[in-house]
Structures are given as structure tokens and as C-alpha cells.
Specification:
The complex is a heterodimer. By secondary structure, chain A is mainly alpha-helical. Chain A is built from 7 helices and 3 strands, in the order H-E-E-E-H-H-H-H-H-H. The chains are: A mainly alpha, B mainly alpha.
């Protein structure tokens, strides 16, 4: 039964992720744009959702344009949906986890944009030190391979029933047995 | 500190310790690439067994139908390290941890092998589905396997304690 519940939740989350991506990418782009405007090297980037990607168009000065496969940053909600369907705690726990994961989506989009701009050849060499390039590229790489799933696991784990992650108290013997003479 | 938070702190530290070396070129050359090549060879043998004649060269499986390069992230190593970090961070006996690690590695690599074989077949017969299967579906399945295995194991470990 837990496996079936997981599959059902994951299938539903997959459907939501697949159908809502364009709308959701628009929201992500809007939010990440505010964050990225603090980095003057990116020339006030305008992030536009297009199909399942987000295009980056610098506005205030000359910089390359970029394309980020945004749906590859957000599909961890499928795992979130499956895990919560498998072991449900409460609506509040689910919504809190969803919110945390959505915040990480905005951050991961910002990191992906920085990572993309840190490896576009001569322009990157002029605007990013080699240490900065390594940090952005490694962070994005790690996040997409492990981090995006680890955050889902952490959210789910933290919202599980109290006995999870804690040793159970030893059971007391029934009174009738403990009263027997040894 | 609450036990649950203590687990998460330990888990985060171990994950970082295990994953950071993967960024080194020497680890990539001597560990990651040979592992990926081994998976490509095994997957090639499985595909030969079902009459899909593929040629394996290093980490690349190719045929006139489709070619797959098993890169970082496609060899299950990150998921294995994720699981080992969780198992080691959880309070359990040494024997329980060793057993969980061994069974977990075998399970994840078996699932990952099915993933590679399936992805080749999807790429060959339904290339338009490849992108979705590659990440959204199979990456989720591989990580879900690790998380569900860990959840089941930790429950048993708690019960035995």
C-alpha cells in the first residue's frame, strides 16, 4: 500500500509539474530577476519563461543572452508529492514543505543563471574570477545532482511523525508478569 | 538538540564530506569514470541479451539506433553517497549500518542499471520521451528508492533498538 500511495502521489505531482511549468516558470523568473538584479555584471537581467525554458535577456548593458532549462530545476516536487502521499502528516506540513522547496527553486534558478554566465568564454573571463567560476559551476552541479532531492528528503523527514528519528521508549512489562516471583 | 535535528546536521556534514571529492579531477578519473564504464559494459551486456546490439566504448553505448554517454549523475554514485550519509547519520548499530549500506548500494545500482537500459530503449524507440524519462522520471525513481529504503530501514532500526 505505501508503494501504491507513493506512485499515486508521484503521478499526480508529475501531472501538476508538467502542466503548470509554463505558469510556474513565469513566477520563478519574476522572483529570481529581483535577486539577480543585485549582481551588476548581469546588466539587470530580464527572465522570460519560454516553453519549458527561461531565457535571460540583459537590459542595462551589453552581456550575452542565456537559456536555462528551468523545468530541470523544479521536478523534485514529484518526489515531494510521492513521499507525502506515502506517509501523510498534515496539510500544514505539506504546504510548509512546498513553500520551502519553492524558495529553493528561486535560489537554484539564480545559481543556474550565475553558473551559465560564469562559463561563456571571454565574457566570463572578464567578469568572473576563476574561483568564482568554479564555485558557481560546482554549486549548480551539486544542487542538480543531489541538493534538490536532499532538500525534499529533509522537509519530509522533519515533518514526519514524532517517533521517526527517535528511539522508542522500552516497553514496560505487563503487571501480571512483573509480579511473578523469580 | 532534538534527535531529529541532530540527525540532519550529521547527514548534511557527511553528505558534504562524501560529495566534495567528486569535484576533484583525480577522483573523476580513477573512480567515477571507471564506475560509469562498468555500468555501460553491464548495460551493454543486458541489451545484447535482449537482441539490441550495442557497442560499448568507455562510458558510451552506441548503435545505429541511439547512443548514450553515461556521465556524472547517471551512474547512481551520488544517490549511493546520499544513502550512506543518511545511514551513517542515523543512530544504529555498526552491523545494521553495514548491512544497510551493502543492501542499499546493490539496490540503487540495480535500479540504476534498469534506468540506463530503459533510457537506451526509450531513446531508440521513443526519442521524444527521452528528456522526461532521463531526469523527471528516472532520477526521481532512483532517489525515491534511496529515501524509501532509508525510511523503512530506520523504522526497523528504531524498533530493534
Amino acid at each position: 500500500m505505501p508503494a501504491l500511495r507513493f506512485l499515486g502521489g508521484a503521478a499526480l505531482a508529475f501531472f501538476v509539474w508538467w502542466t503548470a511549468t509554463l505558469f510556474y516558470d513565469g513566477l520563478l523568473g519574476f522572483s529570481a530577476e529581483r535577486l539577480l538584479s543585485f549582481d551588476k555584471r548581469l546588466c539587470g537581467p530580464h527572465l522570460i519563461a519560454d516553453d519549458r525554458k527561461i531565457e535571460v535577456h540583459p537590459r542595462l548593458c551589453v552581456a550575452p543572452t542565456g537559456t536555462i532549462p528551468a523545468d530541470q530545476l523544479t521536478y523534485n516536487i514529484i518526489l515531494l508529492g510521492g513521499l507525502f502521499a506515502m506517509r501523510w502528516r498534515s496539510v500544514a506540513a505539506f504546504l510548509t514543505s512546498l513553500f520551502v522547496v519553492a524558495v529553493t527553486h528561486v535560489l537554484s534558478l539564480a545559481v543556474s543563471v550565475e553558473s551559465a554566465y560564469a562559463r561563456v568564454g571571454a565574457w566570463s573571463e572578464r567578469h568572473y574570477s576563476s574561483l568564482e567560476q568554479d564555485i558557481w559551476v560546482s554549486t549548480e552541479f551539486w544542487w542538480r545532482l543531489v541538493g534538490m532531492f536532499a532538500i525534499v528528503f529533509v522537509c519530509w523527514w522533519l515533518t514526519q511523525a514524532p517517533e521517526q528519528g527517535r528511539r522508542r521508549e522500552p516497553r514496560r512489562r505487563p503487571a501480571s508478569r512483573s509480579s511473578l516471583p523469580s | 538538540m532534538n534527535r531529529r535535528w541532530l540527525f540532519l546536521v550529521r547527514f548534511a556534514v557527511l553528505l558534504l564530506v562524501f560529495e566534495l571529492p567528486l569535484l576533484l579531477d583525480s577522483v573523476d578519473r580513477h573512480v567515477v569514470r571507471p564506475l560509469s564504464a562498468g555500468i555501460a559494459t553491464t548495460a551493454g551486456m543486458v541489451l545484447d541479451g535482449i537482441h539490441q546490439h550495442v557497442r560499448v566504448s568507455g562510458t558510451i553505448m552506441s548503435s545505429p539506433c541511439f547512443s548514450v554517454d553515461i556521465q556524472n549523475g547517471c551512474n547512481g554514485l551520488e544517490t549511493v553517497l546520499f544513502l550512506i550519509a543518511a545511514v551513517l547519520a542515523f543512530p544504529a548499530s555498526a552491523l545494521q549500518r553495514i548491512l544497510a549500506t551493502v543492501v542499499g548500494i546493490v539496490l540503487i545500482q540495480a535500479i540504476n542499471l534498469i534506468r540506463v537500459v530503459t533510457l537506451y530503449l526509450v531513446g531508440c524507440h521513443r526519442p521524444q520521451w527521452f528528456a522526461s524519462f532521463h531526469l523527471a522520471i528516472w532520477q526521481t525513481i532512483v532517489f525515491a528508492t534511496a529515501v524509501i529504503f532509508f525510511a523503512a530501514w530506520s523504522r526497523r532500526a528504531v524498533a530493534r533498538a
